Amino acid sequence: MQIRAETLVLEGDAKDMICQAVEQMHVDLLVVGSRGLGKIKRAFLGSVSDYCAHHAKCPILIVRPPKEITS
Question: Which one, of 28, 30, 27, lies nearest residue 52 by Cα?
Fold first, then answer.
């Protein structure tokens, strides 16, 4: 089994550009990070990962930031 990954640098609104690239490139899986914004900040700023989860035409994996380790 071979896994191919690509990195793209695109100009424009991130959520729209990601979803367009997914469709044009026939992507099998989209992996995006989450900054871990709270609900209030996410409501005002919007969430790229949330938008992609609802609009990308392929499965999506959202990687959340690691929990802080307290000692």
Answer: 30
pLDDT per position as a tens digit, 15-61: 999 999 999 999 999 998 887 666 665 555 568 888 999 999 999 99
Residues 6+ apart with CB under 8 A from 48: 14, 15, 18, 32
CA distance 54 to 56: 6
Range of the domain at 63: 26-71
Asked if residue 42 belongs to a domain, the reply is yes
Let me know if residue 2 belongs to a domain: no
The shares of helix, strand and coil residues in the chain, as percent rounded to the nearest 5, are 40, 10, 50
Single pTM value for the model: 0.74
How many independent structural domains does the chain possess? 1
